[in-house]
Write a structure and sequence with these properties.
Layout: H1 5-21, H2 30-44, E1 52-56, H3 62-68, E2 73-78, H4 81-93, E3 99-103, E4 116-122, H5 131-141, E5 142-153, H6 164-174, H7 182-189, E6 192-199, H8 202-214, H9 217-229, E7 239-245
Parallel strand pairs: 1-2, 1-4, 2-3, 4-5
Antiparallel strand pairs: 5-7, 6-7
Length: 249
C-alpha cells in the first residue's frame, strides 16, 4: 500500500503534538525504567564516556534525558516540536548542558556520516513510510562498531489471538504502518545482532487493563518485573527489542 508521506506526517504531528503538550511533569514509569536499564546494560556497557548517543523520535524525551544525566553527549530528534520543547524544558530543569535537540524527519537527519556512537529508536520505525531509506540513513550516521537499539511492535502471528484486535486498533490509532520480527529487522539493517528482548507479554497486558481502573503503582512495578523475567519468550509478547552492532566499515 502506497502511503502519502505528507498526509501521514501531518496526522502524526497532530496526534503526538496534542499528547506531548499535555505532559505537565517529568516522571519515569516502571516500563520506562526497564528500557533505560536495558539501554545501559546492552547498548552502552561501561565504556560510554565522551561518546554521543542520538535518540531518534525522542517522544516524551525520557531516554535522551536519562542518558544525558549519565554525562553522555545526547542528541534528541523528533518530527513534533512539542516533544522537543519538553526536552528543552527538562534540560533546563536538570541543568543539562550536554543535550542538543534537532527538529527533523527520522529518515533525513542533518548529521555527518559516522557521527554518533549509539542510536536509540524506540517505537519509531513502524511510523515511517520509507523504512529502507530510514535504515540506510541510520547506518550512515552510525560509527563503525557503533551500536543501535531498536524497539518495534511484534508481528501479529506471535500475539495471542484474543489480543490481536486490541493491538490492531492500537496500530490504527497511533499510525503504525507495519510490524516486525527478528528476521525482518535483521534483513532491513544488516548488522550483527547483540541482544534480543520480547516485551508486553499477555500477563502484563491483562494487568495493565485491570490497572487502568485500580491506578496502583505497585502493581505496575510487579507487572514489569514479570515481563522482564519473560523477555526471552517470543510467543505471547507484543513488542521486540533488538540491539545491533555495525561492522568495522
Amino acid at each position: 500500500m502506497r502511503i502519502n508521506k505528507k498526509n501521514h506526517y501531518e496526522q502524526q504531528i497532530s496526534y503526538f503534538g496534542n499528547e506531548f503538550r499535555n505532559v505537565k511533569t517529568y516522571e519515569l514509569l516502571p516500563w520506562q525504567r526497564s528500557y533505560i536499564k536495558r539501554i545501559k546494560e546492552d547498548l552502552l556497557g561501561k565504556n560510554y564516556k565522551n561518546k554521543t548517543l542520538i535518540d531518534i523520535g525522542t517522544g516524551n524525551g525520557y531516554v535522551a534525558i536519562e542518558i544525558a544525566r549519565l554525562g553522555m553527549n545526547t542528541i534528541a530528534t523528533d518530527l513534533t516540536l512539542a516533544a522537543l520543547e519538553n526536552v528543552n524544558k527538562y534540560k533546563k530543569k536538570f541543568k543539562l548542558k550536554n543535550i542538543k535537540t534537532i527538529h527533523c524527519e527520522a529518515d533525513d537527519i542533518p548529521l555527518g556520516d559516522k557521527s554518533v556512537d549509539y542510536i536509540v529508536a524506540n517505537a519509531v520505525l513502524e511510523h515511517i513510510p520509507s523504512e529502507k531509506n530510514t535504515a540506510k540513513e541510520w547506518r550512515r550516521i552510525l560509527k563503525p562498531r557503533g551500536k543501535f537499539f531498536v524497539a518495534v511492535p511484534l508481528k501479529y502471528k506471535f500475539i495471542l489471538p484474543p489480543f490481536i484486535p486490541i493491538n490492531y486498533l492500537h496500530d490504527k490509532r497511533l499510525g503504525h504502518l507495519r510490524r516486525y520480527d527478528l528476521e525482518s529487522l535483521r534483513n532491513l539493517f544488516k548488522m550483527k545482532v547483540i541482544k534480543v528482548y520480547y516485551t508486553g507479554h499477555f500477563i502484563k497486558m491483562i494487568g495493565f487493563m485491570v490497572n487502568l481502573f485500580l491506578q496502583n503503582k505497585e502493581l505496575d512495578q510487579v507487572l514489569e518485573k514479570i515481563d522482564r523475567k519473560w523477555d526471552s519468550r517470543r510467543y505471547g509478547s507484543t513488542n521486540i527489542i533488538v540491539v545491533f552492532e555495525k561492522d568495522k566499515k
